[in-house]
Design goal:
Distance between the termini: 39 Å
Number of strands: 0
Strand content: under 5%
Radius of gyration: 21 Å
Structural class: mainly alpha
Helix content: over 70%
Order of helices and strands: HHHHHHHHHHHHHH
Shape: globular
Number of helices: 14
Length: 423
Amino acid sequence: MAASNIKVGAIITYLTQFLSIGISFFYVPIMLGILGQDEYGLYALVQSLVSYLQMSEMGIGITATRYNAKYIAQQDFDGQQRINGMFFILYFGIATVCVILGGILYYYIPDIYRHYSADNVSLMRNLFLLALANLVITLMFKLFNAVIIAYERFIFIKTLSLIQTILGPAGMLLVLYMGKRSIGMLVVTTALSLFIGLVQMVYCFKVLHVRLKFKHFEKALFGTIMSFTIFVFLNSLGHQLFANSDKIIISIIMSESAVAIYAIVLQFHMYFYMFSNVISGFYLPRFTKMVSETKTVSEPLMDEVVRTARIQVLIAGLIFGGFIAIGRPFIIRWVGTEYESAYILSVIVLCAEYIGSSQSMFNALMQAMNLHKVRSIIGLGCALLKVITTVFAVKWWGLTGAAIMYIVMFMFRLFVYNLYLHF
């Protein structure tokens, strides 16, 4: 049953991503034509700013999945109820922190982006408030997503994702044609997040019969959870800084149009990352249960890790080769000649991700075994070094400097990871 869920879930995920890309081919040129480079650049920039606030989630979603999977395997449903009550309170606290930090950032936006026009700064602040509201809604329902994954109900969760992939762009196109522009787009996103979150909550309560207990928390268990969570957070922080800091740096040093061009690069990066890492996302609950049962890395477990990693590399190679072959004419046809420079920048960034595509299965295994601490520290250190070097590279070489530093620091980080694993 679990294996069937994984296979069907993977199929739905790939279908969702193919649809997402197909819809983008149709939707993005219309959006760019209506918004223009500057407003699209602001829209993309706000998404990046809010994504940094989302890091305050501290990787609790992964932790909640891991501990729910553990209690399910042990059939300790009372413990599961108490742990989920604890996670819900944690999410509420994190949402409150996000509101406070978001309010501070909202206040300082005019000072940070003083080289932008007054109208663009005003628009950016309004977009930021809507994106912050969407983040808070997402956080308050995120526990239910983690629980559904722990039960390996991948068909349900991925079908919801498929629905969101279709309804999101459809609603955004509607508000764009109504003249609501980027503000309307974020209103649609926020409303859809609320709908999906409510559906997940009802599914957990009515179908999975999940309950939350807000008493009798074990302090020792809380400490264990936080010790696991803090390093998942450091790993998420390192990934966020590594993957998304470029856009923030470019927005401060360069113009809104430069942000728009690099946003196209990051969109290709997002699609590539999602496709090449689909399979690993399904295996954290299974790895956790197998490790919980055997207390070690068994030969069947390692065989499964290696087998699925090979499949991921094959998928990533096919996508990367296809992009090299037709990427340039596609970008020109898709979004226009003013975005042509996004092709070579994307090739540089995707080359790094292709090389690293074989590692994600081992990352999931390390999280299941609670052996990801040193890796998280290494990742954060490399990300901070990348931020510093990218600032100078963007000042000297513009967008090309950002892409070059991405692949240089990616390879350096990969080298340090494997050096750690070897010794």
